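Reopening this one. Same input as before:
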Amino acid sequence: MQVFTVLREVKTNVEKLSVLRDKSKKEALDYLVVSCKAPKEIQQRLDQTLEYFTIMPVDMDPNGIVGKIEHVVRLQDDRMRDEIRRMAPLADPVQVSVAQNILEVATSLNQIFKIVRHFYIQGQKTKSYFILVQLQMIMPMIIQEADALVSAIDAFKEAEPIGDGLGPMVAGKFMYGKEKVTIERETVYAQTEFKGRTLLVMKAEGPMGTVGRPHVGVEKLLSDPNSKVDSLIMVDAALKLEGETTGEIAEGIGAAIGGIGVEKFRIEKAAVGKDIPMYAVVVKQSLIDAISVMKKEIAESSDKVVAVVQRIIEEKTKEGDTILIIGVGNTLGVAQ
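Same output, byte for byte:
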């Protein structure tokens, strides 16, 4: 009886995941057809794209693993964009980036559904209470993540700023009105001044839905003999713990950047090689906040973060220093 009770509960959640998966696929198809002017016959190709997978490099010998991972991830990103351009050749760069974000949501939901369904069927076949009860225990968190992914689609479709765009928004405030220079693909920086210090401010190029390649930009600026960088300040969103307040600001030390670790590794290596201190400022938010339309509390915290960064500059640097400020995050809807 316990097995059948758990089976019924898990089945309900599996069906909900199926509905969310199908909704994300429909949203992706509608966006490509309506907004990107793709032909309606792309359904089969879209289904094939959602099944696309990436095999990570072998890590038995860790030497050089970061470069291998970066190579594979970059190929994955380029391949996804090429697929979108083939399906919707009339789409502009912003639409391509939005479509890529929506497809990534649909792909994630597709994988979540298939994995959960696998364990559900396996538990159903074997009548294994232990398999099913483990699935039952983690199901609320899985559903919460799936709901968050679906809620992000509306923000992506309208190209509105999301919570993760806090870092680029802060960087945009520093570089507003200054000449922007493209330093790497989808990554720009601008030079400005603050109380006798030279500020080099970097962010992903908006309003496209991209995080850019800040790690490569950092390496180029730090290796430039004409621009000696004395300090590095990174601004990013951070997942809050339950009970913490959305929009709360925290300061720290180190490279504030997420991802699989490639970007963090290369930024740390570049900074350590020149003994450059790294300061971090983050704004707390939940997973749902990070990928949904930016909340008022997060948007209002951007001005406070600017003040915090300015205080760090005054306290930790001296006149004549050059400070590199990086706004990390998805810059969808956030120009510069």
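So the earlier flakiness isn't reproducible anymore. For the record, The chain has a mean pLDDT of 90.
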